[in-house]
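Protein in question kept in full:
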Amino acid sequence: ASHVDSEGNFYHLDRTVDVIDTTAGPVYSLPIEEVLIADCADVVQDCSVVGVPGATGEGQVPVAVVRLQADADGWSPDAILDKANKELAGAGLATLAAVRIARAPQDYPLGPTGKVLKRELRTRFATMFADGLPTEAVPVSPTTADDVTASPAAA
């Protein structure tokens, strides 16, 4: 959520834990998620964007965890990343460093109210990408070998 005061100052009211601290400045996850869900609706059913540590001195980078539409199984992480980044750039938002496809319920952890547990995603990705973002699709579990990709600019 956000608002503009009488002097035209913009205030973003999102939870501070959901702010991604990049070297270019703060990036808010909610607007990115809204664009992915609205403008990539043919592919993305639901998504969550979290910040993970980038290379040393680079701050955090945004990574999207997406649940695909039922008829979007043929989409690769590379294709989703390209589509998402085109839509995000067109909206004037920060682009993603990586996309992770959540194919199993444990890949997209939900709390009792049905909200995604971003803290679990942040912890999982911080561990998974401790040595940096992948430059190509890498195995993350035996059943999702091709479900992670990174933007070439993020590597």
Summary: The longest helix spans residues 77-90. Helices lie at 29-39, 77-90, 118-128. The longest strand covers residues 44-53. The chain is about 25% helix and 25% strand.
